[in-house]
Design a protein that fits this description.
Largest sheet: none
Number of helices: 2
Strand content: under 5%
Low-confidence stretches: none
Helix content: over 70%
Distance between the termini: 16 Å
Order of helices and strands: HH
Mean pLDDT: 92
């Protein structure tokens, strides 16, 4: 389960980065902001999983 959550976090980060870049390329500030938000969500999920791993071992 943890591996699945970690991969989900990486996927959110990648999607966010792509969306932010696309928004920047077309000059769409809202899309750029949504991309940054998705990256932050992925970062938070990844941090949570790392913390769980730390306490597990």
């Amino acid at each position: 389960m943890a591996r699945q959550q970690k991969s989900k976090a990486k996927m959110e980060q990648a999607k966010g980065k792509a969306k932010e870049a696309a928004g920047r390329a077309v000059g769409n500030e809202q899309m750029e902001a949504e991309g940054r938000a998705a990256q932050a969500k992925g970062d938070a999920r990844q941090t949570k999983e790392k913390a769980k791993d730390t306490f597990k071992h």
